[in-house]
Amino acid sequence: MSKQRKFVNVSAGVPGPKGASIIARREKAVPSGVGNNTPVVVETASGALLHDVDGNTYLDFAGAIGTINAGHCAPEVVNVLKEQLDKYIHTCFHVAMYEPYVQLAEKLAEITPGSFEKKTMFANSGAEAVENAVKIARKYTGRQGIVSFTRGFHGRTLLGMSLTSKVKPYKYKMGPFAPATYKAQFPYMANKPVGMTEEEYAQYCVNQFEDFLLTEVSPEELAAVIMEPVQGEGGFVIPPVSFVQGIYNICKKHNILFISDEIQTGFCRTGSMFASTHFGIEPDIITMSKSIAAGVPISAVTGRAEIMDAPTAGEIGGTYGGSPLGCVAALAVIEKMERENLAERAQIIGDTIQKHFRDLQKELPVIADVRGLGAMCAVEFVDPQTGAPAKELVGKLTKGCYENGVVVLSAGVHSNILRFLTPLVITDEQLQEGLDIMTDVLKGIYVTN
């Protein structure tokens, strides 16, 4: 695979000598449980490009697991961070307040789904946002139960793991887990029963949920249902609209709060500022993080004002929650997304990726499914003879991709799904070059096998 590329250059090898040296140091100093997908040691990054310590350049199709929708080192974000550093770095909002916290709360109330009064609190990570959303829901309702869904992912904290479905690597031997957490079935269109239409399958899954409330937990015991509008770690699983609306309506009927986990789907990834919009729902609470601030650690919980006001002073928050740096970065990111219409750009990117792999699917039966919502796209691989998940092939594919200059991640409970989280500022040329490289790698592996 020695084709001349315009953007990618891996002539130093992956990893190169400097990178290999740092990785050797890492192995001595950093626990093995801190996972890593690629042996790439970054020195600089810009837009959709990563540059490593050996002078290699990669196309980033992983986006720091969906964190860099606005691109690496977006000038607008870098500038406001530099300005903020000259003013103050941290005062702790609980001690001495600052306007950017209030400004960002006002902005999220404006742009999140729901035509009702909202309030927002800030934390540091997606898992913290989930934890606080659950605390707030329990405080408001006076109930304890929380329902999540199979294949769902909600973080690595104790409660996050309890709500998460995939056992390895996230939960194995990490229990016991938090009580009063339950898991209901989530529809998976790739496994839809033969002969059943999408709408029939959606209704079947809603009926399953109604049975779940009879066999597993009473609705009177439930504070909230938490759902990713599109499942992330679970394999970019897109549920039917009628399923999401069906669960949402059941929640309304029983006064169960609906928490939309938009940590990976939010901020233009799915072709809309928030994925909930695609499903025609107005969540009671929304959790956000990842691409909210282009890589600066911050997360948010936005919800109906009366719900968010349920905890008393001191019951939610944290020393670093809503840091000034995160707040100004988030405001710059949102302004950029609105000004450049990155939601529309996400749709174009997603259409390009899906068309590319659907065309490829015609000649490579190992591609079982190509799906996506906006630029949140996935390609699922199975053994065409047995239908078994092709985990080993996807492992070779992700390795071959980074060795040839494209950083991409797998997903799914079987790790047989290739997921795309490219920065939304990626150019058409960059996107096509990355897709061409991935195609060459895939064909090389598949023909060899």
From TrEMBL:
CDD domains: OAT_like. The keyword Methyltransferase does not apply. It catalyses: (S)-3-amino-2-methylpropanoate + 2-oxoglutarate = 2-methyl-3-oxopropanoate + L-glutamate; 4-aminobutanoate + 2-oxoglutarate = succinate semialdehyde + L-glutamate. GO terms for biological process: gamma-aminobutyric acid metabolic process. Its cofactor is pyridoxal 5'-phosphate. Keywords: Aminotransferase, Pyridoxal phosphate, Transferase. It holds the Pfam family Aminotran_3. It comes from the Bacteria. Transmembrane segments: none annotated. Its EC number is 2.6.1.19, 2.6.1.22. Belongs to the class-III pyridoxal-phosphate-dependent aminotransferase family. This is (S)-3-amino-2-methylpropionate transaminase. It comes from Brevibacillus invocatus. The gene is gabT.
